[in-house]
Here is the input.
Amino acid sequence: MARLLGKRVIITGGSTGIGAAIARRFLDEGAAVCVWCRNPDNARLIKSELPALSDVVGVDVAEPAQVDAAFPRSIAALGGLDIMICNAGISIRRDFLDIDRADFDRVMRVNVHGVFYPSQLAARHMMQADGGTILITASTAGVVGYRHYADYNASKGAVLAMMRTMAIELAPKVRVNAINPGYTSTPMQDAEYSPEMLRRVNGIIPMRRHGRPEEIAALYVYLASDEAAYATGGIFTFDGAESVGSAATTL
Here is the structure.
């Protein structure tokens, strides 16, 4: 349990769900961790739950000025940076015809700009130092069509395209990979789906359940570790085989 001993990590959206699970697991693996989050209540909670965190910074990743201020603060707290995890994201369940333009812009700014701003700062730092790793939380929604999430789907497709270019341009010094979680038991998921909807989804997934954040965090540990030294430009899907088939395959 020390595969990341001495590694210095920033996790955006690190106070709940997948991000919090990553923070917890990375601490267990010996890393020094800074968490960025937007919600002050969540910030206080993660601080109390994980007192070993190097820092918890209030950041709206959609706002470049806030990212620019948070980055040097985190570098100072950590003493450098080896791993940047761009995990912050939002979704709004709505039919395409009913998507509000302001909501569309917000989803794109958080999910796309909110990856670009911190990852570019991290890449510049890593290229001038000893290299590093950037991991992006994308989604199966970036490669498979889901109803009611046109803006979210578009944002995740965009970050996958950006990741590919980053991996090519930053190699061999900086590795860049994306993780595509499928349906995962998180507060964001529970807020948008009723218990009945969750049961129906589980009936479609071949594994017959949602993924757990701690299971996904284990994949981040591997990709951040030296064991994955040859892994870059990859899209690692973690969805219980949901996206490789269709609803028809369950009949």
